[in-house]
Amino acid sequence: MSEEAVMPHLRLDPDDVGDQDAESLLQAIKSDLRYEEVIHGCLNCGVCSGSCPSHRFFDYSPRIVVQTVLSGDAQAVKDMMDEYIWACAQCYTCAMRCPFHNSPGGLVMIMREVAVWRGMEAVHRLLKPYGRVLLKVLSIGNQLTPDMIQPDFFPDWGPKIPWSSTDLAIKRKAIPVYTLQVTTSAWRVSPETSYELYTIYEETGVFRLIEQIDPNLYEVVSDMVEDLRDMVESTR
User: Fold this and answer.
1) Which residues contact 25 (CB under 8 A, 6 or more apart)?
2) How far apart are CA 55 and CA 143, in angstroms?
3) Counting Cβ atoms within 10 Å, is residue 98 exposed (0-12), middle (13-18) or buried (19+)?
4) What confidence tier does 4 reach under pLDDT thresholds 50, 70, 90?
5) What distance lies between CA 28 and its chain's CA centroid?
6) Is 194 in contact with 228 (CB distance < 8 Å)?
7) List of residues 6+ apart from 226 with CB closer than 8 A
8) 201 vs 17, 45, 99, 119, 209, CA distance in Å?
9) How far apart are the first and last CA of the chain?
10) Cα separations (Å) of 227 from 182, 194, 221, 224?
11) Which of 78-87, 124-133, 198-207, 223-232 has the lowest mean pLDDT?
């Protein structure tokens, strides 16, 4: 599986990676193979925004995202990619409600991927707090693990978090499924599985992307990958 197969917009020209020209960004969005599937036109009815949970709490409207992209105003689209689109929760309620069968959430996904591959400053700023989650995803394929649920990390989760974060090993053993009785991952992940995961990340360009976004995280992951590969290959 190649980078081009996973990230269709790279098929335009790999040399565009890093290019942040507004017209080039808009072209990358509209050239994505998924674009025709997520945008079919727009009635500007606002049903998507009316049902959007992010619209209720943030300065964000899926209707405005769709209208701005359709307007062809490249600079406005670029400005939107700096922060505006990152308020989307990717719940796709908009896609279920749109009478035109648009998927504003799908459009936002394309815009975010273009922003990442082009190395926009917003990506460095907005994804920085998710470094621990990225490390877990890259190393074992899990997003959130039991030992990450600590009061200091989730102060807004209410008074029961302190109880949930204590005696984790005992509480996890109460789960009848053996593969879930761990605290450092959501489920047990074999070295062979991680080995295959690393190969996929490497072949599809994910490691190159991480190196571009967060060099420090990439260095940590590289050491981890090298150690695991040595261990797995020594047993074959």
Assistant:
1) 19, 74, 77, 78, 81, 114, 115, 118
2) 25
3) buried
4) low
5) 18
6) yes
7) none
8) 18, 41, 37, 18, 10
9) 24
10) 22, 11, 10, 5
11) 124-133
Q: pLDDT digits over 129-152, tens only?
A: 778 888 888 888 887 888 888 887
Predicted local distance difference test score (pLDDT) of residue 12: 43
pLDDT of 37 over the 90 cut: yes
Burial 129-139 (b: 16+ CB within 10 A, else e): eeeeebbbbbb
Give the global pTM.
0.73
217-227 residue pLDDT tens: 889 999 999 99
Give the integer Cα–Cα distance in Å for 86 and 54. 10
Tokens 């009061």, residue? 151
What would the mean pLDDT of 18-38 be, rounded to a whole number? 92
Residue among 121, 34, 127 nearest 78 (CA): 121
User: Tokens 């197969």 map to which residue?
Assistant: 5
Lowest-pLDDT choice from 6-15, 79-88, 143-152: 6-15
**Position 111, amino acid:** M
Which of 112, 48, 109 is closest to 83 using CA atoms? 112
In single-letter form, the type of residue at position 96 comes to M
Q: Cα(213)–Cα(128) distance, rounded to whole angstroms? A: 9
